[in-house]
Design brief:
By secondary structure, the protein is an alpha/beta fold. 30% of the residues lie in helices and 28% in strands. It has 6 helices and 10 strands. The chain has helices spanning 5-26, 34-41, 58-67, 78-87, 121-134, 173-177, and strands spanning 48-52, 70-75, 92-95, 107-113, 135-146, 152-155, 165-168, 181-190, 195-196, 205-213. The longest helix has 22 residues, at 5-26. The chain is globular and about 60 Å long. The N and C termini lie far apart (43 Å).
């Protein structure tokens, strides 16, 4: 049986998350946001930016303003989309989830920040493939999430009566394992403290990867005989 986690977030839990966090998003501080900090730290100049799980586009609005970039927000919550269209009209909003995004490729920066831990395992590699499909060769991927040293499954505490879990693991690893992404940096921190540090328990440890897609650049030519 297919898991129903994607359906639950599309039908109601995406809206509930936005309702719980809407006021906090109004207090968003771009100076402390790690994805924005990484863009500045490495001098990136994105022109076509996609954020998956973008809520109402609060982060993308800062990127569009700072870099004069075309910015697209993908989000399953209808309430977040309505609010974003009202608050940030310069952003293009698309209803979708990480495993099925109704867009064509051509983005030089994709941000997936604290989204993949909500994706059920049936959809995880579909989500990785969608992200890769939409990112151009040479483009950059920012993927932030929980990053324990092992693989953890935690029951989603807002839906105790449903078979819904969060999955905590290194989400840079599937991209690096493919051989077509190179690591630029990894920032580690603690989720509860919202800060960079090397401590924290397994449940709270976080990581934010900056990766660059390179379809051929990481391959060396074999000197052996042709096969």
């Amino acid at each position: 049986m297919q898991p129903n986690q994607a359906r639950i977030f599309a039908e109601f839990e995406g809206d509930r998350w936005f309702q719980r966090n809407q006021n906090a998003l109004k207090c968003f501080d771009p100076e402390t946001d790690l994805p924005l900090k990484v863009l500045k730290l490495y001098g990136l100049q994105p022109r076509n930016v996609l954020e998956i799980g973008a809520a109402n586009g609060f982060r993308l609005a800062e990127i569009a303003k700072a870099y004069c970039a075309w910015a697209v927000a993908v989000e399953p919550s209808a309430e977040a989309l309505r609010d974003g269209k009202k608050c940030f009209p310069a952003i293009e909003f698309v209803c979708g989830q990480s495993h099925s995004i109704p867009l064509q490729g051509g983005f030089d920066l994709i941000i997936v920040n604290f989204v993949l831990h909500w994706v059920d395992r049936y959809r995880l590699l579909q989500s990785v493939a969608e992200i890769d499909r939409l990112l151009i060769d040479g483009g950059f991927l920012i993927v932030g999430d929980f990053q324990p040293s092992s693989f953890l499954r935690v029951r989603y505490h807002h839906l105790q009566n449903e078979e819904v879990f969060t999955y905590k693991q290194d989400y840079g690893a599937p991209f690096l394992a493919a051989g077509i992404y190179r690591p630029i940096c990894l920032l580690t921190g603690t989720h509860g403290a919202k800060a960079l540090n090397g401590g924290g328990g397994e449940n709270e440890r976080t990581g934010l990867w900056l990766l660059q897609k390179s379809l051929q650049g990481r391959y060396s030519e074999s000197q052996g005989p042709a096969r």
